[in-house]
Amino acid sequence: MLQCQRQNFHHSKLPKPGAVGCIIGLSTVNPRRKCIVVAYPLCDSADYRYSIGIHTMFVRFLDNGEIARFSSIWFEALQ
After folding, report:
1. Dist CA 3 CA 41 (whole Å)
2. CB atoms within 10 A of CB 34
3. pTM
4. Is residue 1 part of a domain?
5. 34-39 and 20-23 beta bridge pairing
């Protein structure tokens, strides 16, 4: 198994809607930009059995209101 810092080994673990954090580890996104989790893709299901493998989320950046979709492994919640 790869020994890297960020791994999505359990795809059903998503941050809660409304969580504030940053997108960390992507060269295309400034890691200091704060964002809030606003939604999940329409294919997410409230039934846990059908949500296995769904691991993306929509975030809204607080600086300009841009909405983007990212894998949840890149999201780091602020404490």
Report:
1. 29
2. 13
3. 0.70
4. no
5. antiparallel
Question: What is the full per-residue pLDDT of the chain (79 aa) written as tens digits?
Answer: 445 555 444 445 778 899 999 999 888 999 999 999 998 876 655 565 555 556 788 999 999 999 998 888 899 999 8
Is 64 a domain residue? yes
Residues belonging to the chain: 79
Q: Among all chains, which residue has been given the structure tokens 């809607």?
A: 17
DSSP SS3 for 47: coil
Number of domains comprising the chain: 1
Structural domain includes residue 28? yes
> Would residue 9 count as lying in a domain?
no
